[in-house]
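Design a sequence for this backbone.
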């Protein structure tokens, strides 16, 4: 089993030019301290004190003396009731195995700092029991069975293939602008029940209420990324952080700027 230090060294070896110290997410907020050691992150996703670039995802108490955490430290865990648009899954149905995807995303701060070349998940301990039923809850009735505690992955290359021809042609030549401090911006909004977009309710934090930000640090990325080794192209977008779209259907085509959030999300839902 890799230690947090080894896990960080493994991941950072793919990205030797990374200089932020937070490895693509920047500095976490201060959480607490123990024996003179400052602990960062949030209770639902704390940074490991001995290697703060590595976070713990899960729920429940940690072992004693676990890599610098205080005694009896407990990870709160994430819950769709904190983020998704109501109605939520009733407790009795959750007890029977009903579940949802919490959030579809790719790792990155979406502001100021470029995303990492490689991400790394290490399953230390996973829940045991029968498969859970993940519901789309988007009106289609779509469901799938997965093991409890699983993290679902989507291949961007496959996602690109699955688009219809018209949409694929557009994303091949288009860019996406993310909100400044995107995760703070979206923190007051509701996610869709599928976890891929935000609901358009006007609940995003106003730009003038965000932490200080600079226009030249706002991230504008292509929608399609190319593997520098193989040339394979992949769709890579973060639907919930999307703030503005720059759409083109050819390299020399006229660019259409979409800055109405409802229209932005309608396109991202294709």
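Sequence:
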């Amino acid at each position: 089993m890799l230690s947090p230090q080894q896990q960080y060294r493994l991941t950072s070896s793919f990205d030797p030019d990374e200089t932020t110290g937070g490895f693509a997410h920047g500095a976490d907020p201060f959480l607490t301290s123990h024996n003179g050691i400052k602990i960062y992150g949030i209770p639902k996703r704390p940074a490991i004190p001995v290697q703060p670039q590595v976070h713990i995802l899960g729920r429940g108490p940690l072992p004693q003396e676990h890599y610098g955490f205080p005694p009896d430290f407990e990870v709160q865990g994430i819950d769709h009731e904190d983020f998704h648009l109501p109605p939520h899954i009733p407790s009795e149905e959750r007890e029977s195995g009903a579940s949802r995807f919490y959030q579809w995303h790719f790792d990155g701060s979406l502001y100021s700092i470029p995303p990492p070349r490689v991400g790394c998940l290490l399953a230390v301990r996973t829940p045991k029991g029968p498969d859970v039923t993940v519901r789309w809850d988007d009106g289609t009735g779509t469901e799938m069975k997965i093991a409890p505690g699983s993290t679902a992955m989507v291949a961007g290359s496959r996602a690109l293939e699955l688009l219809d021809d018209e949409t694929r042609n557009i994303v091949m030549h288009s860019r996406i602008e993310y909100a400044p401090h995107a995760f703070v911006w979206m923190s007051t909004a509701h996610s869709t029940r599928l976890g891929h977009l935000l609901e358009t309710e006007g609940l995003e934090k106003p730009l003038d209420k965000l932490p200080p930000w600079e226009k030249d640090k706002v991230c504008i990325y292509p929608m399609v990324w190319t593997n520098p080794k193989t040339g394979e192209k992949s769709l890579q977008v973060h639907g919930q952080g999307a703030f503005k779209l720059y759409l083109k259907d050819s390299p020399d085509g006229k660019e259409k700027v979409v800055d109405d959030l409802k229209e932005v999300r309608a396109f991202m839902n294709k």
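The mean pLDDT is 93.
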